[in-house]
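Review form for a predicted model. The reviewer records the input and the model, then writes brief findings.
Reviewer: anonymous (R2)
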Amino acid sequence: MTMRSSKMVKVPHELVKSPNKKGSLKLDGMSVIEFCFYTQGIKGTFFLQDHLLLIVKSGVYTVRFGDQEYTMRSNEMMFIHKSIGVQYEKSGEPDSNYILDYMMFFLNEKVVHEFLKFAGLKPIYLTNDVVPITVFPISDRIGSYIESLKPYFENPDEVKEGLVRVKLIELLFHIADSNDRFLHQMRQPVSKDRDSIAKIMEENFLNPVSLNDLAYLSGRSLATFKRDFQTIYNTPPLKWVRNRRLDKAKELLTESALSVTDVCFSTGFENIAHFSKVFKKRFGLPPSEFRQHLRLKEKV
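Model under review:
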């Protein structure tokens, strides 16, 4: 199933614009959001800037990462590692009018560091690669914790950020006590494999990633990432990403029926005018004329 024809949203920050949110508690812009959809088959994509804990109270929420699919149902939760792009589908259950009630907890580096420090824990280095997505059941304690949040959503603007921070750390304690696997994943840094740049670039060039995101994924500082990238590719990383996206856009214009707008968004570009300009500079024609030229050639 392909869902890249829509723009990939960076979260949590771009979720502020969502017209469907029922209520939210904010921390440093946004950290905790509660949604309640009456829905059937809503799909989309997002790129995670922070770790995400996704808790489904009722309904069905499906996440796809690469060729793997993960489905959560009532009273299940999912941990998704930061700096990856995923596809999602919100479907609900047919016998409950497709109601999907869930919470999203965004855990930025500051909150995670505060929790580790407060709990007296240190980052651990495991030999296995980071597991990007983990699904596990909600314990009774976590269920009680979720119920304790309901009063805060009645007047979310009156809730102090310090209290939101405390509630996030409380959640992490509950989860750490009930699920060691989650704790290991949250504390595990990205692999330091110095041969990983090529793999990281191929997996992420279509995502709305920044150089800081790519450096993080490679386990390098920004300066080291730029230097190592230049050594491998003999070109700056942003130029490489733009050219790979343009090559993919050319392929889609040639082989698919996607509109120019869909091609623009599905290849990581966020502005159609800019996409047309750089495409013309690379291939000599803007995208729409390029496709028309191909069709004329086919008729000859």
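Findings: The two ends are 34 Å apart (CA to CA).
Further findings: The chain has two domains: 9-187, 197-299.
Recommendation: see findings above.
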